[in-house]
Design goal:
about 280 residues; alpha+beta; Thymidylate Synthase, Chain A; two-stranded antiparallel sheet; 8 helices; about 20% strand; thymidylate synthase activity; Thymidate_synth/dCMP_Mease_sf; cytoplasm
């Protein structure tokens, strides 16, 4: 994943500094960049820091999104606590939510988008059906960004505006990310949407092609910079492969143990501070 490291170098060398942020820490920001991956050939899980421990969380989070849930207790069933810091009682009280709930972010927007006249739209089911029945369509798109509801949650969706493109039996996925925490969030997002492409290709009977990742506000917090410089010095290793249970034919039937990470040999992990 030399492209990821090249982006890190670009941000640190050409980015501009913002003195503060909602997280209370300054950051270096660079705007506009594309990364491209072929997940079926080489699965883009970064090797310059270990995500072995995080692999289960990456899969569980994606399945959680696809289920339509916003309840962190569902993640806890798999001992995944990625979202706990944003679902405390104090934060939930501010937004009139039960403790542990995040409100209408990824899962609810993907599966129960609130349309006009009370219409509920299941964007994931719709896009799968469109891929199967009208593969030449240019409307195979899902969005988690709902302007009417982004102020009703503590953390607005950072990613999740994505589109599938099908031609000659090959399916590609393009995703636009509005806010990209380069050291922590972006490696998760790359792996998650690469996995989504493999899943959708399997259930639609298409060949997985390219995942194109468009990042807009790409940032590194001040307290992450030295650690990222350390990571940049590491030579990328051979990327792993991911195998899916071939028996699964419905996007909503995938389980945690339907995914196998093969031949992953990363460097030791790097403990980056997380902004809340």
């Amino acid at each position: 994943m030399q492209g990821y490291l090249n982006l890190a170098k670009l941000v640190l060398s050409q980015g501009r500094h913002r003195v503060s942020s909602v997280q209370g820490v300054g950051n270096v920001v660079y705007s506009g960049h594309e990364l491209r991956f072929r997940p079926a050939v080489e699965f883009p899980l970064v090797t310059t820091k270990s995500l072995k421990v995080s692999w289960k969380a990456i899969v569980a989070e994606l399945l959680w999104f696809l289920s339509g849930s916003d309840d962190t207790k569902e993640l806890h069933k798999n001992n995944v606590h990625l979202w706990d810091a944003w679902a405390t009682k104090k934060i939930c009280d501010q937004y009139g939510l039960p403790e542990g709930k995040l409100g209408r972010i990824y899962g609810p927007q993907w599966r129960t988008w609130r349309g006009v006249n009370g219409k509920i739209v299941d964007q994931i089911s719709n896009v799968i059906e469109e891929i199967k029945t009208r593969p030449d369509s240019k409307r195979m798109m899902v969005t988690s960004w709902n302007p009417a509801e982004v102020d009703d949650v503590f953390i607005a969706p950072c990613h999740g505006i994505f589109k599938f493109v099908v031609a000659e039996g090959v399916i590609d996925l393009c995703m636009m990310q509005r806010s990209a925490d380069l050291p922590i969030g972006v490696p998760f997002n790359i792996a998650s949407y690469s996995l989504l492409l493999l899943m959708v290709s399997q259930v639609t009977g298409l060949t997985p092609g390219t995942f194109s990742h468009y990042l807009t506000d790409i940032h590194v917090y001040d307290d992450q910079i030295d650690l990222l410089r350390e990571q940049i010095l590491r030579e990328p290793r051979t990327l792993p492969r991911v195998a899916l249970n071939p028996a699964v034919k419905n996007i909503f039937d995938f389980k945690l143990d339907d995914f196998t990470l093969e031949n992953y040999d990363p460097y030791p992990s790097i403990k980056y501070p997380v902004g809340v």
